[in-house]
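Saturday, quiet lab. Running sequence design on the structure tokens for the scaffold JK sent over.
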């Protein structure tokens, strides 16, 4: 089945001592379950994936499966530097209840597209659940080439991609040339509407953690050919999305969650909390957007 719709790459809650805050995780899951989200991404970039162990990813996925009760599609981040570790992680997360897995390319050794494709295929060969690729050149330093991604899309267990490169030409080629059941998702709310116009069938966006109903309205307005509404909402979402991703990152995102009745809490070191000045700026940006009117699910 081809994935479509709105997926939130959610943060991982930690206590002040850096340990997992499982109760905060449960609270957030219960809140997100009442929104217009189709799914969540566990331990992606916003989930501080590089800082979260395999055992912790399993715990987070098990709790999410218990709390969501099948209402949300659960996609868990499976990447580790080596193929063997990643396959072990894939199997463990599938057993924990993940419906699919998010997979970055190997990126410590740069530039070998044949090795990247082999990595994708080998993990997919051994994964009990479908693989969703993740092209995140801003963080990895590797921008997976279009031809490599199209080749990977032909694997029967590789079912889509979250592309955050911002390269609309690449996204358009993927949407037009990849296998029919391969889902192309825009990776940020900054240009969600543009991604839909280029053939994307969904989005995995930090903005949808706080504004899933707004993202849903952009999505439905586009498919209903109500471009005026879609463009208006995209324009209002842009400064919100930009603040939560490019400008202030995960610490800013968690600050925003705390302000809206959810559990953000601290990040793991070496990430630092935002300053009081930045917190006020984030709150001002969210308030000026006027988008809270659509997010009645937050109570």
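Result came back. Writing it out in full:
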């Amino acid at each position: 089945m081809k994935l479509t719709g709105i997926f939130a790459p959610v943060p991982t809650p930690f206590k002040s001592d850096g340990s997992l805050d499982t109760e905060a995780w449960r609270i957030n899951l219960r809140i997100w379950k009442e929104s217009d989200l189709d799914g969540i991404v566990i331990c992606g970039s916003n989930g501080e994936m590089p800082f979260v162990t395999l055992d912790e990813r399993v715990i987070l996925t098990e709790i999410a499966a218990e709390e969501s009760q099948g209402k949300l599609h659960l996609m868990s981040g499976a990447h580790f530097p080596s193929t063997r570790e990643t396959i072990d992680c894939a199997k463990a997360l599938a057993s924990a209840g993940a419906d699919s897995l998010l997979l970055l390319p190997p990126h410590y050794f740069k530039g070998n597209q044949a090795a990247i494709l082999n990595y994708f295929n080998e993990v997919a060969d051994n994964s009990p659940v479908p693989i969703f690729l993740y092209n995140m050149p801003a963080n990895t330093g590797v921008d997976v080439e279009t031809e490599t991604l199209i080749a990977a899309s032909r694997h029967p267990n590789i079912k889509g991609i979250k592309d955050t490169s911002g390269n609309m030409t690449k996204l358009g080629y993927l949407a037009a040339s990849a296998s029919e059941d391969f889902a192309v998702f825009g990776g940020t709310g900054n240009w969600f509407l543009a991604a839909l116009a280029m053939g994307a069938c969904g989005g995995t966006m930090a903005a949808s953690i706080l504004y899933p109903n707004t993202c849903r309205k952009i999505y439905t307005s586009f498919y209903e050919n109500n471009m005026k509404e879609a463009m208006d909402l995209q324009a209002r979402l842009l400064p919100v999305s930009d603040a939560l991703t490019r400008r202030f990152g995960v610490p800013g995102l968690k600050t925003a969650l705390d302000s809206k009745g959810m559990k953000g809490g601290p990040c793991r070191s070496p990430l630092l909390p935002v300053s009081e000045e930045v917190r006020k700026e984030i709150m001002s940006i969210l308030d000026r957007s006027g988008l809270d009117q659509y997010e009645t699910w937050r109570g």
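Notes for JK: The chain has a mean pLDDT of 96. Residues 5-237 form a domain with the TIM Barrel fold (CATH 3.20.20.70). Ask whether to fix the surface positions before the next round.
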